[in-house]
Specification:
binds tetrahydrodeoxyuridine, alpha+beta
Length: 134
Amino acid sequence: MTDRELVDRAFQMLEYSYVPYSRFPVGAAICCGDGTVFTGCNVENAAYGSTICAERTALVKAVSEGHRDDLERIAVVGLGADYCWPCGACRQMLFEFNPDMIVLVARGDGAFVSTTLRELLPNGFGPKALVTTD
Ligand code: THU
């Protein structure tokens, strides 16, 4: 699957976003090593803090289906004029599974840029940080 196709899969998710409070739909799509794609959208809640972002929806779908070690690329899209950069919580959640994940970030006109999670979360705290010396 090309980067453009993965971004388009993420755009297709915008119709499922549940965003009565922010009115800001976000879509995501993760491509695994074997080509499997897991999609997600943001799902808001009247208790605002319980909202889950699109990226984490897609990530939890992938991990809960057994895809833990082959999460290669994620596309994140929104309809804003600016690129829809992943929030800090999503960067942290994704870092756990692949710090070198490729991150495609799109804006409302369809344009997208490609970066990596390590670029977005330098010196991130991951599983290796929990290894102790004793
Ligand atoms: N949102 C995401 O889905 N992903 C992000 O990385 C940033 C923010 C959602 C959460 C909320 O539903 C809306 O965008 C506005 O913050």
